[in-house]
Amino acid sequence: MVIRKCSKWFERTKSGTLKQFLIGTIATFNWRPTSDSCMLVSKCSHIRSEAPMRNNVTLVMTRRPRVEFVWLHKQEMHKGRKVSTSYYEVIDDAEEERQLFGTLDPDSHKRVGGDKAAKKAISGQWGTMAVVSGPVVGAAHRGTPSLVGRSVICGLAQSRMPPGAKPQVEQITLAGQTVSLVTDGSVPLKTVAEFDTMERYRTNDNKDAWYVRLPVQPWNPYALDITTNAQVGRFHEKMGIRAGQIGKCFVVRGHSVKQRNGNSAGILVHEAPNPSWLTGCIAPRLKNHRDFAGETRSCVQALDVIYKAMGHSRRCHLIIVD
User: Fold this and answer.
1) Which of 8, 202, 223, 318 could join 253 via S-S bond, C-beta 3.0 to 4.6 A?
2) Where are the alpha helices (DSSP H) in the chain?
3) Number of domains making up the chain
4) Are residues 302 and 223 part of one domain?
5) 193-211: b or e for each residue (b if 16 or more CB lie within 10 Å)?
6) CA atoms within 13 A on the CB side of 41
7) 124: which strand partners?
8) What range does the domain containing 7 cover?
């Protein structure tokens, strides 16, 4: 009788293993509920319902439209003293690019003219990232695919989905444009947040060369594993962030990017207040914080949103649409 009554509550728990264990314990010790024990059970039930669960989280990123910037510094007077401040100069068009970097001489293959400081400045690029959760996402497509295109992208995504999955196309808005995602249809797709992203772009000494970074890969999501990285840890300690989580970040798996020595590049997703901390890596930050050079808090908050959405999971995925 006791087991039958308590089983009604156990049916509402998230863990079948826990349910079996507790029912067995009740039967063994002939436990009978009291008002105090029932109150404890009720509180434990609430705690379990609030506990984070494993969740499929996918980061959907675009580098379009291309928004390039250079990280510049200037001296300003503040209370009678010269103070160095930094800012991001967005390159709006080809004319501004010429004014900053000069023009390429076809004979010497060097840039002539331009702003001396800008030609040596660190270059970066802004992008946009949506955080979606719920189903497994196997592929992405810019816009709305045709019937034939729909069939093709669903077929490409099928191999990366659980057995028996029935791929379906769901749409999100990314940087103001429609992006179609192929999901396994297991649960509804939810957009958790949209962030800005920062990446390193041109090299410092040659504005016609570029740093390594992840290629566009809409049909094959990159796996991101939570890890602890020593270099990121040094950054965390210097900036005074991530107390108790020093070095926590994502490492990108399954990419083909190589270093100059031929070894696989260690590409991470982590906080970065400016592009000097990025070489092939990606730094999300809260949306509309592009003007705040050197600002770290919005980067920490953005990654915290992703970690929270993942719950107990140690892996999520990244799709770079374009």
Assistant:
1) 223
2) 2-10, 16-29, 35-50, 94-101, 116-120, 147-158, 230-239, 297-310
3) 2
4) yes
5) bbbbbbbbbbeeeebeeeb
6) 18
7) 69, 200
8) 2-50
Residues 10 and 119 in one domain: no
Q: How far is 236 from 248, CA to CA, in rounded Å?
A: 9
Give the number of C-alpha atoms closer than 13 A to the C-alpha of residue 298, restricted to the C-beta side: 20
pLDDT of 101 > 80? The answer is yes
6 and 123 fall within a common domain: no
Q: Are 229 and 249 in contact (CB under 8 A)?
A: yes
pLDDT tens per residue, range 105-122: 888 878 888 888 888 889
pLDDT in tens, 271-300: 999 999 998 999 999 999 998 777 899 999
Q: What is the pTM of this model?
A: 0.79
More confident residue, 191 or 22: 191
Buried b (16+ CB within 10 A) or exposed e, 14-40: eeeeebeebeeebeeeeeeeeeeeeee
